[in-house]
Automatic annotation (TrEMBL):
Keywords from the named record: Membrane, Mitochondrion, Mitochondrion inner membrane, Transmembrane, Transmembrane helix
Spans annotated as Disordered: 1-22
Name recorded for this polypeptide: Cytochrome c oxidase assembly protein COX16, mitochondrial
The UniProt record lists the keyword Iron: no
PANTHER family: CYTOCHROME C OXIDASE ASSEMBLY PROTEIN COX16 HOMOLOG, MITOCHONDRIAL, MITOCHONDRIAL OUTER MEMBRANE PROTEIN 25
Any Gene Ontology biological process: mitochondrial respiratory chain complex IV assembly
Transmembrane stretches, start-end: 36-60
Any coiled-coil regions, as ranges: none
Short name of any one Pfam family annotated for the protein: COX16
């Protein structure tokens, strides 16, 4: 009679696999005991990193505001604001529509460049 189909020795996991399983089980257990590591620490890291990443954006905002204030001060000093008329889109529309003569127009075709086909088969 032949020997058993399977060896009688139980499977022993390798050292590294048992270490990984041991580490993951310890990590899960520590998370259940210390929820700060799962929720609080990532939140604080996000807040601190966000403040560093948003600093240039806020600086740009204030630089634009300063530029706007400087230009308005220069316009006031030169008196440019006084001669400007208020812009009204309706007024501009009517002014431009009076200039256009929609009744007297002619459709003109531009000549094709040399060597270009005329589209006739």
């Amino acid at each position: 009679m032949p020997g058993p189909a399977f060896s009688s020795k139980p499977f022993k996991a390798s050292r590294s696999a048992s270490k990984a399983a041991d580490f993951s089980s310890r990590y899960r257990a520590s998370l259940s005991r210390h929820p700060f590591l799962l929720f609080g620490l990532p939140f604080l890291v996000t807040m601190v990193a966000g403040s560093f990443f948003l600093t240039p954006a806020t600086a740009l905002r204030y630089e634009r505001y300063d530029h706007k204030v400087k230009t308005s001060l220069q316009e006031n000093a030169l008196g440019l604001k006084k001669e400007r008329r208020q812009f009204d889109i309706r007024e501009e529309y009517f002014r431009l529509s009076q200039k256009l003569d929609d009744d007297n127009w002619e459709n003109k075709r531009y000549p094709r460049p040399p060597g270009d086909s005329d589209g006739i088969l």
